[in-house]
Specification:
heterotetramer; A mainly alpha (about 160); B mainly alpha (about 120); C mainly alpha (about 110); D mainly alpha (about 525); A: about 160 residues; mainly alpha; elongated; B: about 120 residues; Helix Hairpins
Chain lengths: ~160, ~120, ~110, ~525
């Protein structure tokens, strides 16, 4: 398991994982417009990470992402989410400070069917990014921990 | 029999199957699977509750037509419940890993050091 | 202010404490009026163990936790055997209790309105 | 700052512990001192917020207030004018404020105790993080006015609690306990979710007040009530669904066991909220009340008798804690059974049951903290292998004795004050209830005499013991003070905080609904 799986798997992984990353980030980014959002996109990104881990083994990825870094990023994502909640506390917790202001993500949403401009939603896209960061790192940390656990099991 | 009720029947079946697995299966991983089955059944029920005949997906972006949409609230609930389910399943499975390491077995009837 | 009433009885902890302290004081008065002629270091102050010799090692006098209430547990052994048998330590049994209670609650609630 | 705290106290009570949970791991990298100071700060801030909320709510004699998350000026309708209550609301009333006081008290004691308890052990960072997550969930359960959010917070507490039970992965039994507890918690949580789904399917709303207003009491409603009742009774630890409780309390670190009791009480709160506010007169309350009373009698008696034969000090206290849940169920069950006619003794029973939640949290918290000190000193939790600790730990012994006396309802401590009300009121409904309750209290005293005798009395142990450090002593003394002061002045606290809490459950249903839906 140390050297990863067969050459077919590794080749396919090389082709696919970039696509999975892009798709995951797309889902996070369009979370306030289409089905999906931070959690789903984060899970897709984490699945790309899991794919790499399975195909190449932990040797090929450990230098890149370790549990320590993942944990710190996860906490930062959670804190960012909470911070966005605190940002609106002048009115109420989680108040959407940016919506319809014309500033960052502040365009007014048109009623009825429309193409969905990305520049809407106020703090929702930002929250999606925060959640996405937390989920992608969180799930990656879980996958990493479980794989290391399984590896130790095999070694015993 | 009204076919529109099939999702409810499926949800009930899933829940009952899950309870069966929790009660009568001896392997810890199968018990975790049973809990996941119950969860899937409940999620199916929630999603079904939001269905409206001829409704379209509740997305304004590129909506095919203006008309009744299915309720987004149950879908949001289901999503949240799936997220929670992920966390609980991950926690349960990591307990299973450690139990196997300590006890050397996954038989639920042999893991009873704490009793009485 | 500090007391409570249940509409049936009343409970005033301050009054009770004062009374308790008063009774305690009376107890000490009674004790103080006893004879002072106790001789230390003689048989008068020796530990009396139903006539048995006092063991050398004092530690063996401590009754360990597991031995306490032996008679009571023995007397109720029929009850304890059944209750302990229910605490099997097996997760499936606990889940079965849960499902069983759930069923019972359904029946009671639906029948009893 | 003060105005901000007053206005936003309900949401800050959830957000501040969450902030603690997420920031502690980052501060943990800066070193132990920074982490401990930050944890203490968060705990203090949380306690202050609970105090502010309580002062606010009890200042208005326990009336409910509404906090709308993300709402402009606390308006419930959406900006588009739609007024169906779909917003996420927190709805603290007297009962919620009372519960947050209990949780904050226990959190503060546990965190203060942990500073020295955790000094020479690893894993402290994870521990504080999970502890704050657990408490955030408990506050959420107590404050939310939304059924689905209640489920979410319920699951947050489940996950955090089981993480705390099982995070010492090198301990064999703690893994077993963690798995069992998590499986049962998840199962019960899913049944609660199923019930919420059934209610949503019928009434199309998740807001407690909205559903309560629409509730008709049909068969499906009763099935949902059954699911909620069984699920929450499991998390509260009522016999015969209590089997997880001794495992959980026994295997968690001592300060966590105290917080787990607060978690169980939050589930109990959920149960009372469901029965009184959500269902209320829509069902026949006699049936539900007698169901609670039956559970209560079983819980009291089985809990006490099982405690009698325990050989592990923490499992012994855990069974004691289980039996105390029974007293709360008994008091409130008697109140519920007669809640249509509303005689005076029903109100007194409710007062006793609710007051006992606070008293029990203080006594059990004190006992669990003492047991932590005892285990640390003796190096074992086995009662058969300890003894003679009173020679070097006089004060810990005295505090343990205070806690046990209070829990067993010996006057003049606080446990007696609440049990007195329960005895008197349940006697009016049926003398049998009072007899079981009093008998079990006497047995409970015997249980703790056993624990005290086994741990503290006897000859001086041959190996030197580790004395209780000052840092561990402070929270124990503080809890003991609470026990004594609440025991000596029960009338004061009964009038100020318990009666408004009972009023909120007993009379407050219409006001609770009217606050959300307008009118009455």
């Amino acid at each position: 398991m140390k050297s990863g799986m067969s050459i077919i798997v590794r080749t396919v992984t090389r082709l696919v994982y970039g696509l999975a990353l892009v798709y995951g980030f797309y889902v996070i980014m369009h979370g306030h417009l289409t089905p999906g959002g931070g959690f789903q996109g984060g899970a897709v990104v984490a699945s790309a990470f899991a794919l790499l881990l399975v195909a190449f083994g932990s040797a090929g990825i450990k230098g890149l992402l370790n549990a320590h870094l993942l944990q710190t990023l996860e906490e930062l994502g959670a804190l960012a989410f909470l911070g966005l909640g605190f940002a609106g506390i002048g009115t109420a917790f989680f108040y959407n400070l940016l919506a319809n202001t014309g500033s960052c993500f502040g365009a007014t949403v048109a009623l009825g069917p429309n193409v969905g401009p990305l520049d809407t939603g106020g703090i929702l896209p930002l929250m999606n990014w925060a959640v996405g960061l937390k989920v992608m790192t969180g799930i990656a940390a879980v996958v990493l921990a479980m794989l290391i656990g399984a590896r130790q099991e095999e070694a015993e | 029999m009204n076919l529109g009720n099939m999702p409810f029947v499926a949800a009930a079946l899933l829940i009952l199957l899950g309870i069966y697995a929790v009660l009568f299966k001896r392997n810890l991983i199968k018990i975790v699977l049973g809990i996941s089955l119950v969860e899937t059944g409940v999620n199916l029920l929630l999603v079904t509750l939001g269905y409206r005949t001829d409704g379209i997906a509740p997305i304004f972006t590129l909506a095919p037509r203006a008309g009744p949409m299915v309720l987004p609230t149950p879908q949001a609930l289901t999503l949240t419940s799936i997220v929670i389910g992920l966390a609980t399943t991950a926690l349960l499975l990591s307990f299973v890993v450690w139990i196997h390491r300590h006890y050397g077995t996954l038989d639920v009837r042999k893991i009873k050091e704490l009793r009485g | 202010m500090n007391g409570i009433t249940s509409g049936y009885g009343a409970w005033n902890p301050i009054a009770w404490t004062l009374l308790f302290l008063g009774v305690l004081a009376v107890g000490f008065l009674v004790r103080a009026s006893g004879r002072k002629g106790c001789k230390r270091g003689t048989g008068q102050t020796k530990v009396f163990l139903s006539g048995n010799e006092e063991p050398e090692e004092a530690g063996s006098l401590h009754v360990r936790g597991g031995h306490l209430y032996w008679g009571m547990v023995e007397g109720l052994s029929g009850y304890f055997r059944r209750v302990c048998a229910a605490h099997t330590g097996v997760l499936s049994d606990y889940a079965a209790w849960f499902v069983g209670v759930l069923g019972l609650v359904f029946v009671i609630l639906v029948l009893g309105g | 700052m003060t105005a901000l705290m007053t206005q936003h106290a309900p949401v800050l009570l959830i957000a501040i512990p969450l902030l603690g949970a997420f920031a502690v791991p980052i501060l943990g990298k800066l070193g132990r001192g920074a982490r401990d100071a930050f944890s203490g700060l968060i705990a203090l801030l949380t306690a202050a917020l609970a105090g502010v909320l309580a002062a606010n709510v009890f200042g208005q004699t326990g009336a409910a207030s509404l906090y709308v998350l993300g709402g402009q000026g606390f308006q419930l309708p959406l900006p588009s004018g739609m007024s169906v209550p779909v917003r996420i609301v927190l709805q603290p009333d007297g009962m919620s404020a009372f519960m947050t006081l209990i949780t904050a008290l226990i959190l503060l004691a546990a965190v203060l105790f942990s500073f020295s308890y955790w000094r020479d052990r690893s894993g402290g960072t994870l521990y504080y993080s999970l502890l704050f997550l657990l408490v955030a969930g408990v506050f959420g359960m107590e404050l939310t006015g939304d059924l689905f959010n209640f489920f979410v917070f319920l699951e947050v507490t489940s996950i955090a609690a089981c993480g705390l039970i099982g995070f010492r992965v090198w301990r064999k039994t703690s893994q077993e306990a963690g798995f069992k507890v998590m499986a049962l918690y998840t199962l019960s949580g899913l049944f609660v979710l199923l019930a919420i789904g059934l209610l949503y399917g019928q009434y199309g709303g998740l807001n407690v007040a909205y559903v309560a207003n629409a509730l008709s009491g049909g068969t499906l409603d009763l099935i949902a009530l059954g699911l909620l009742l069984a699920g929450l009774a499991l998390k509260a630890g009522a016999v015969p669904l209590h089997m997880w409780a001794p495992d959980a309390y026994g295997e968690a670190p001592a300060p966590v066991s105290a917080v787990l009791v607060a978690n169980s009480q939050a589930s109990l709160y959920g149960l009372f909220r469901v029965l009184f506010t959500l269902y209320g007169p829509a069902i026949r309350t006699e049936t539900a009340g007698w169901l609670l009373i039956t559970l209560a009698l079983l819980t009291i008696f089985v809990g006490v008798t099982m405690a009698l034969i325990q050989k592990d000090i923490k499992r012994l206290i855990a069974y004691g804690a289980v039996s105390q849940i029974g007293y709360m169920l008994l008091g409130v069950g008697v109140g519920l059974a007669v809640s249509v006619a509303k005689p005076d003794y029903g109100f007194v029973a409710m007062q006793g049951g609710i007051f006992h939640m606070l008293n029990d949290a203080a006594c059990i918290g004190l006992l669990f903290l003492c047991s932590g000190a005892v285990i640390r000193a003796a190096g074992t939790s086995d009662l058969d292998r300890m003894g003679g600790l009173a020679h070097s730990m006089k004060w810990t012994g005295a505090l343990f004795l205070i806690g046990s006396f209070a829990l067993a309802g010996v006057p003049p401590f606080n446990g007696f004050a609440s049990k007195f009300l329960i005895y008197e009121a349940s006697f009016r409904l049926s003398p049998f209830l009072a007899v079981v309750a009093i008998l079990s209290s006497i047995l409970l005293l015997a249980v703790f005499v056993k624990a005290f005798q086994a741990a503290f009395l006897g000859a001086k142990p041959s190996v030197p013991v580790r004395r209780t450090s000052a840092g561990m002593m402070i929270p124990m003394v503080a809890l003991a003070l609470v026990v004594v002061v609440f025991g000596l002045f029960p009338g004061f606290f009964l009038d100020r905080i318990v009666t408004p809490a009972v009023n909120a459950l007993w009379y407050g249903r219409d006001a609770y609904i009217g606050l959300v839906l307008g009118g009455g």
